[in-house]
Amino acid sequence: MNVDPHIEILAAKVLAGEASPEDETTLAEWEQANPENRAHLADLKKIWAMGPRSLATYAPDFVRGWREFQNKKQAAPDPQKFPSSTSRPQSIPLLRKYGWQMAAAVLALLVISFLVWPGRPGNDQEMLTFKAEGNQEQITLADGSQVWLREGSSLMYPASFDPAGREVELKGEAYFEVTHNPDQPFSVLANGTRTRVLGTTFQLLAPNESPKIEVRLFSGKVEFSAQKTAEKTLLEPGQKAVLESGTGKMEKSDLSLEEASGMQWMQAEKVYQNEALLQVVEDLQSFYGIPVKWENPPGLDCTFQGSLALGNLHENLNDLQTAFSLTWNFENHLITLYGHPCP
Asked: Mind listing the domains of the chain with CATH numbers?
């Protein structure tokens, strides 16, 4: 079966999760065109399933391998002239079915799996992929770090972290609460960037095909870098960095209140039954990672009964303002509350 090499490269991209929606559509249309295409793609999937496990344990020389493959192909006798014989060595079923075309596909698939698979030589960790389907999802990593994935986003991570460091890969948008461990740095790879932290809370926005990748820091400290240009910047709480993937330009600035609290997709209702207002505000401070200062703090007998839809700090503060006749101000990554609640 003669198959356009472009299809096999396209299949490898799709299987690796590196294909665009257009690539996936093209391959799906090709697969459905006839039974032979479906059978061929099924065989490629079998090859792919074997690739990463093999590559995790050895580091092949692909340049040399490809050269030897080409030499053997040129030196091979014409199969039409090869006499039929019971003593002729039996070929692998897939190669017998497709010949040198499949051999090229095998090598192409293994090369691409080597390039894109996080568990490449030197890292034999079992890799897992978690995708938020339908709604935002929360996942706890092996070190206790927590990640909230926005709908449609996915995270690739190891079942257990290497003692030398913790590394995950994000596609989409997520909020991270990283367990502090200075001896085991935590890094997030996303669209050609690396966000390196020790222990902190931050939000990373890296949608597929987006021209911009953005990181917002709420607590701790992170280093945000572009892998192609090696440009990097250090962020303090209340700051963000934006990288334009096309130009490689990186800018750092302060978060606005909307950006600091703009996680409506993480929205979760918190119900209070006669809870001290001090505790309610402390919960908001912890959830959003923004410090709060009272000008006139209320007593423990000042309580709140009701619910707050966590995910938008601006709305939460307005709710408390209405309930307790408070006023508030946001400046320099600090919220100040004014008034005399429960006089």
From this structure: 5-116 (no CATH), 127-255 (2.60.120.1440), 264-338 (3.55.50.30)
